[in-house]
Amino acid sequence: MEKKEAANRNVIALGFVSLFTDISSEMVFGLLPLFLTGPLGASKTLLGLIEGTAEMLGYTVRMASGTVSDRIEKRKSIVLIGYALSAASKPFFGLAESWGGVFAVRSTDRVGKGIRTAPRDALISESVHEAKVARAFGIHRSMDQAGAIAGPLIAFMLFPLVGFSGVFYLSLVPGAIAVVVLLFFVKEKFAPTAQARKSISINIRSVLAERKFVVLIAIMGIFSVGAFNFSFILVRSSDLGVAADMVVLVYAVINGAHTLIGFPAGILADKIGKETMLSVSYGVFLVSTILMLLATNSVGAFVVAAVYGAYIGIAETVQRAVVPKYIAGHLRGTAYGLYNMVIGFSFFVANIVFGFLLDSSGIATAATYSIATSIIAIAAMAAFQALGKSKG
Length: 392
Description:
The chain has 392 residues and is mainly alpha-helical. The chain has 16 helices and no strands. It has a single domain (2-183, 200-391), classed as Growth Hormone, Chain: A. The radius of gyration is 20 Å and the shape is globular.
C-alpha cells in the first residue's frame, strides 16, 4: 500500500509540475498567434511554418532525451533541465520585435519541452502498474490542462492592463514554481535490469524490432500529417467574428474540454482498449474539422473549440499510454523518443500544409485535406486491430 501511495504521489507531483508550466505556457500561447499575425504582420503560412518548425525541433529532441535517459538510467535530471529551459525562455517573447525573434524563443521553449517529455512520460509509466497506466496519464493530463485553462484566463485579465509584453514577462512566475515542485517533490523511478545500459544504437534497434509498435506509430503519423494545431482554431475564430481580446477565451474553451475529457478517457481506455480510444480521438478531430468548415459565426467558433479540445484530451492521454503495452520498461525512454520524433515530423508537415492551403485556397481546401488524412488513419487503425485479433 505504501509503495502504491508513493507511486501516486509521484504522478500527482508531476501533475502539479505540468499544471504550473501550462499556466506559464498558455498565458503566452493564447496571445502568440494574434501577436504574430497582428503587430508583427506574419501571414498564416508563416504562422504555420513557425509552429510546425518549432514543434518539429521539440519532437526531434525528444528522441535524444529519451534514449539518453535509458542509457544513463536516470529520468528526473533530464526532465528538470527541460522544464527549466522552457520556464526561462518564455519571458523573452516580450523582447521580440519581429517574427524571427518569436521563432527563436518559440523554438527554445519547444526544445525545452522536447528535452523533458520522453523521460517524463517514461517516469510516469514506471510509477504505476501497466494496467493503470492510461489512468495515470489521464490524471497527469487533466492536471496539466487545468493549468491550460487558468493560463488563458489569467492572460485575459492581464492583457488590458499590461499588453502583450507584460503577459509574456509575468509567465516566468508559474514556470519557476513548476521547477521548484519538480526539484523537491518528484522521485526517480527507473528500475535497472540486466538488460539496461546497452548502447543507444542497440536500444533504438531493439525498439524498431517491435513490429506492432512500429506499425502503430506509423498509423499515428498518418493521422498527424493532417492534425493542425490549436493556432488555426484561434485564427479561424477571429475570422468568424470573435474579437481579438476574446480569442483567449476560445483557447480557454479548448483547454477546458481537454481537461474534462482527459481522466475519463484514460479510465475508459484501460477498460475498452487504448487502440479503440485512439480511433475515437481521430473521429472527434474529424468532427471538429467538419464543424470548423461549416461554422459561420462566433458561437460556432466556441463549439469548434470545445470539440477540438475533446480530441486533444483523448489523443494526448491515450497515445502516450499505449506505448508501455508494446515496449519493455528499460526501453521506454527510447520508444517515447521515437514516437515523438514521428509525431513531430508529422505535425511539422500538417501545420505547413494546412497554413499554406488556408492562405492559397481557403478553409474548404485546408479542411478537406485534414478530413482525408483522418479517414485514412481511422481505417488503418481498424485494420491494425482486426489483424491483431485474428493473429491472437
